[in-house]
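Please decode residue identities from the backbone states below.
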């Protein structure tokens, strides 16, 4: 029987896995600079967490969740996003008791049953961050600045930061009802999804990707006119802090975000190079969410970067992983036994060592060393073994030296100190 991966879910193979790891290492560095620490939560949560956290009206809860009934008759769901699980952990472990402020990041697989296409998968990965415990606009600006610096540090170019404010519980309802009234007038021209959203979540019509819906939006009431004084002041302060940090952004009143928990600041980073799935990253403020999930009234703000989309952007710029530094070519049984001991000493001294498991000819072993791009080759045949030596060859200069078996590690130590 022929087995294949589940549709929309992919294996990550070398050398791409090394490129991912390099990006994660760079991201960890940036998170450390801003005082964020890592959190890891389970892949599976109780379904109610997402239904309550993301909202019935969201596309994710409505049609994209991988939900199953466990043997204990409990409804469980593969995590479709990272914010609700992190909030759940924050509340469950009462992290707010020691300090309401918590700054957490994660690298996690997410699962959404969407129609797969380039840049859209059913298992994908996010680099995410959540900052709890402050409603200050400075926090929004800092999270966005961190995000921009992270993308810069891994080499993203030409991405566009788009910013909006979705208002708050005080001012959004009036806007929603004005928008609903407007949309009711053009309802027949809207796509099926938007005809439903018109009732459940009219703001979502604003960022529908369907061109015919976009065409109908001319003349729709603008969101900026609806902001209350607090929302306006907050948004001005976010923009001011971003400008001070030298972070470029564009205001886009059509950004609505697909999850119901957002209030005030909402943002996306898009790239033309990504084609139809142009959103590289999304995020915003979610001040009511911690309380909605059973915790205290603690505000939060965060983002999620789509890792696959990020790697699509970096496909040409990421360096290949380093080749092995040493290839050991041993010939014959006794030399192979001696070589194995040396190999382990070299690895213990942090050299990356490859060798041939099959005792093939010298010629084929040298070919393999070449193909792997090894920097040095250690040759050990029966002649060398009889003299208790190895031959060390520098593969780029072709220079060779004889080195006593007992001092091979010492020899490589000197090579390292000279390069
Ligand atoms: P989101 O906008 O749903 O936000 O997802 C964030 C990013 O994940 C997207 O911009 C996109 O790059 C990537 N993404 C989403 N769906 C897929 C997919 N099917 N295939 C590939 N990539 C995908 C959130 O998930 C929020 N939790 C972000 C957040 C954190 N807001 C506050 N804190």
């Amino acid at each position: 029987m022929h087995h294949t991966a589940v549709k929309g879910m992919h294996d990550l193979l070398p050398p791409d896995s090394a490129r991912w790891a390099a990006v994660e290492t760079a991201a960890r560095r940036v998170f450390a600079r801003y005082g964020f620490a890592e959190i890891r939560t389970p892949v599976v949560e109780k379904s109610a967490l997402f239904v309550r956290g993301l909202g019935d009206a969201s596309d994710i809860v409505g049609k994209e969740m991988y939900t199953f009934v466990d043997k204990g008759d409990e409804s469980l769901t593969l995590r479709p996003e990272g914010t609700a699980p992190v909030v759940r952990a924050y509340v469950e472990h009462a992290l707010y008791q020691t300090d309401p402020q918590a700054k957490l990041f994660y690298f996690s697989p997410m699962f959404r049953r969407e129609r797969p296409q380039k840049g859209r998968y059913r298992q994908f990965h996010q680099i995410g961050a959540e900052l709890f415990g402050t409603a200050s606009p400075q926090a929004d600006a800092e999270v966005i600045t961190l995000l921009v610096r992270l993308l810069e540090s891994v080499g993203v170019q030409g991405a566009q930061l788009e910013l909006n404010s979705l208002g708050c519980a005080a001012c959004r309802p009036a806007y929603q009802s004005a928008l609903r009234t407007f949309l009711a007038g053009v309802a027949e021209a809207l796509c099926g999804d938007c005809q439903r959203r018109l009732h459940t979540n009219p703001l979502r019509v604003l960022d529908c990707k369907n061109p015919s819906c976009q065409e109908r939006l001319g003349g729709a009431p603008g969101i900026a006119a609806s902001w209350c004084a607090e929302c306006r002041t907050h948004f001005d302060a976010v923009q001011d802090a971003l400008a001070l940090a030298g972070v470029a952004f564009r205001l886009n009143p059509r950004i609505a975000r697909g999850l119901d928990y957002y209030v005030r600041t909402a943002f996306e980073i898009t790239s033309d190079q990504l084609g139809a799935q142009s959103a590289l990253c999304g995020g915003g403020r979610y001040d009511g969410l911690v309380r909605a999930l059973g915790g205290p009234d603690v505000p939060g703000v965060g983002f999620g970067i789509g890792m696959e989309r990020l790697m699509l952007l970096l496909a040409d710029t990421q360096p290949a992983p380093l080749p092995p530094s040493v290839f050991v070519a041993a010939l014959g049984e006794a030399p192979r036994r001696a070589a194995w001991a040396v190999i382990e000493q070299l690895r213990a001294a942090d050299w990356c060592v490859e060798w041939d498991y099959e005792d093939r000819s010298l010629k084929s072993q040298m070919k393999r060393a070449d193909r792997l791009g090894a920097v040095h080759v250690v040759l050990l045949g029966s002649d060398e073994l009889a003299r208790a030596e190895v031959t060390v060859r520098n593969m780029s200069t072709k220079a060779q030296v004889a080195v006593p078996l007992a001092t091979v590690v010492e020899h490589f130590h000197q090579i390292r100190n000279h390069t």
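Observation: The pocket of histidyl-adenosine monophosphate is lined by residues 81-83, 112, 114, 120-121, 124, 126, 128, 130, 258, 279-284, 286, 302-304, 306, 308-309 (CB under 6 Å).
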